[in-house]
Design brief:
Elements: H1 2-18, H2 30-37, H3 56-70, H4 75-86, H5 101-129, H6 135-151
Length: 152
Amino acid sequence: MKLRLTALVIVVLLSSHIGISADTLLPQHQQRYQTIIHKLRCLVCQNQTIADSDADLAKDLRDQVKKMLNESASDEEILSFMYERYGDFVLYDPPLKLKNYILWFGPFLLLVTAIFIILIKIRRNAKKDTFALNEEEQNTLNRILKSTNKDD
């Protein structure tokens, strides 16, 4: 009786370690895993994918992707899960929507505005560089020129 109980305990303990952990990825999922983790942004680093980030949150997201792949989730299901949980920002290439137009077009608008301002300033400075005399200055200059011409 004692031997059977011991054997049962050993079998239960071993069977709990035989399953696939979140850190282990089945070989057939490796390419999909790499594709997915390059599509997700690290929410801590913000300018890196979770594939490139060493942040703890990025590691947790990579583990979640592994777990879902091992549970036979599709790429779309995994990306949808991440999107529902973290919003547009978790996607490295967020979808083009009205509410995130500023993310897509903000840098271009800023560049065009900067170029426009620079061109206006250059034009104003070019106008300032032209030397124009008012009437009083012109009369004074004419008198000076006439007096120097008389001396010749």
